[in-house]
Amino acid sequence: PGHTAIFHFTMYSEMLDLYRRDPKAFGLPDDVIIVWPDDNDGHMRGLPTDRGRWKHGVYYHLAYLGGNLSKQTTHTVAPATIAGEFQKIVQAGATEYMLVNVSELRDYVMGARMIADITWHAPAVYASPDPAGRYLSWWTREYFAPAAAQARAAYDAYHTLLDTPDKLWYASEAVQNLIERLWRRASGQPFTPSNADTLAVLRSRIALLDSALAREAEAGSAMNRPERRFFSVDVGLGLRVDERQTRAALTLADALQAPDSSAMWRLLREAVTPLEQLENDFARAEYPPFDRWYGETWIRAGLQRNNSHRAYVELRAFIGSDGRSRLEPLPAFGRPPTAAGASAPVRTP
Q1: How many domains does the chain have?
Q2: Is 261 in contact with 298 (CB distance < 8 Å)?
Q3: pLDDT one-digit tens code per residue, 221-235
Q4: Fewer C-beta neighbours within 10 Å, C or N terminus of the chain?
């Protein structure tokens, strides 16, 4: 009561292209705010070059569900990306309305706080060079002093390694592909060797991930318990998802090349260990009130790449069948994924 309702037109999906083609065809009333979208991954698809008689705003994604840009486990839109894109937003004058997709705020709070600072007082944020670096310095001092310097180094390593969503399931995809090859070997069928380019990427990343986790551990050791607990999720968990699955994939690649069946099965059992550790990592991060926070849901269902448990589930099922079957791979386009909590289909020779 007593307030005027806000009306906005969000140019999501195909609407942006249609609007650009013929803005006048939309006949938008003067009091409608035109909201410009990003690409679902923190990069603006468009901004006004002529604001006309309308006010303008932005629809921005820190989290997203859909295809190769899904972000549902941890944050991958770095402060440097936010700072650069919002500088464009401010310069374009699209500052009347702000909608941020965080899915669940817990895993995206650092980026959300940075956006809040910019929308509250953009001139102060952009008055000096390197707004992203200054924000990270403030963030680590505010929440992790006296371990601010170590925390900053860990965040920098994190943002270098996890700068796009696909980094979180690259190794999981490798695990899935290797299980397919191992199943063929175990069932006496022809199989192709491990992809050399994929192995090169995994080998290069494992060293960087180990270094980043060492920085995370060093910083955490200088924090008090509440600080360390949050830091272990905000920095450590994403790195561990990547590191555990990368290590499992490399061990499975060794298993595929093993000289005999005995060596192959020994390496298969070794490959389960880092994935079991990852399950423990998730359980540790699900402290109250975040019980079952990373469990399977319709968002993280079955063998979807969004499901960070996928590699563990697939490898455990393969070993449990003594190599005679493996879980069916990702559903084809147009088919629904396996329901959360349901058993995935199994293929046998």
Answers
A1: 2
A2: no
A3: 999 999 999 999 999
A4: N
